[in-house]
């Protein structure tokens, strides 16, 4: 005798699959968008570090996607949708960060390569930038894999029964993904050889620090168990600092 899966569960599974596909399209479009900005702004296709940047993203996706699909496809689905209760302040901060990181930082880097504003930059600096970018992305990915409620926007996920994540990098700091993203914001301009693009990159890092403070306050006020967690893990971004 076979048991029938409840229709509600079937609908849930179908919804998750649709959202996962939507997220895959979003990631692909974002990657193509970044590549277009880099190569159109620079006016060249033989920009090695731009290909390294795109290649590192592809490698990270190839590693993360199978892990997330196996252990937490609902997290991918969550990141595809805005959901309810998205904080108004985060709409502003998140939008500004997206513009600074995905548009202006790459646009200025490309124009810098085209017009030579920075001039020659030591390969060692670019390699350091690539290494820091990889470490930042690895930390961001570790946080995403560890936290089943890892969302693209700041909201309390009452619809999913959100609880505090205390595993993985969350054992050491309360917002490890933002720390990883800050590393990336500073590292990408160095990797691409553009000191001028450190301006939007640094602005993006400041926005992430602000977002950390506001999200931490939101979680303390609205998420059950977070205050106790904050007493155990004292630091938001950097152990011993803040």
SSE map:
Elements: H1 7-42, H2 48-71, H3 73-80, H4 88-115, H5 123-146, H6 176-191, H7 198-222, H8 226-232
Helix pairs in contact: 1-2, 1-3, 1-4, 2-3, 2-5, 4-7, 5-6, 6-7
Structure explained in plain terms:
The chain is built from 8 helices and no strands. It has 242 residues and is mainly α. It has helices at residues 7-42, 48-71, 73-80, 88-115, 123-146, 176-191, 198-222, 226-232. The N and C termini lie far apart (58 Å). Helix 1 (7-42) crosses helix 3, helix 2 (48-71) crosses helix 3 and helix 6 (176-191) packs antiparallel against helix 7 (198-222). It has one domain (12-232): Four Helix Bundle (Hemerythrin (Met), subunit A) (Up-down Bundle).
Q: Report strand %.
A: under 5%
Shape: globular
Number of helices: 8
Number of domains: 1
What Rg do the Cα atoms give? Answer: 19 Å
Distance between the first and last residues' Cα: 58 Å
- Main sheet properties: none
Task: Give the SSE string.
Answer: HHHHHHHH
CATH secondary-structure class: Mainly Alpha
